[in-house]
Amino acid sequence: MAHRRRSLIALLTAICALSWAAASALPAAARQAPTAPDGLSGTWRVSRTCLTICASPKPALKVVHHLRGQVFVTEGTVRQTLYLTGTQVLVHGPKDSLILTVRALGQAMDGYGVGNDGSTFTTAWRCVAAPSSGATQGTMPARQSGLQPRSIIHC
Prior knowledge:
The chain has helices at about 1-25, 140-145, and strands spanning about 40-50, 60-70, 70-75, 80-85, 90, 95-105, 110-115, 120-130, 140. By secondary structure, the protein is α+β, with helices and mostly antiparallel strands.
C-alpha cells in the first residue's frame, strides 16, 4: 500500500513539473483563452472516495472561474487552482493535489489525488450548472443546494 501511495505522489509531482514547464515554454499568445466556452467554468458537484488514511467526505459543490489562459480557480475559503492541459486537469490547493481526466468536456472529469497528510483518494467532478446560471456561490455540500448533475448541462 505504501508503494502505491509513493508511486501516486511521484506521478503527481512529475505531472506538476511537466505542466509548469510546458506552460512556461508556450508563447504568451498561445496561452490566451479562446472566446468559445472553456469547458471548466461553472458549478461542479465533486465527490471523493478515500483510498488510504482518510474518510470519504460528502459531495460538495465547487464554483470554477476562468483566470487566464488555461488556468482556472475555485471560489470559497479553500481556493484551488486548475490547470487545463489537453484532456487532463491538474488541480492544486493548500490541502491536496489531484489529476483529472476529462471524460466529456464541460460535463465530467475523474481521477486520483493525494493529500498533504499522505492520504490518497479518487474523485469525480460532474457539471451541475453553467457559469451564467449563478446557481451557487463558493463551496457547499451538494445536498444543501438541491442541484443534481444533468447530462445536458455544459460548464
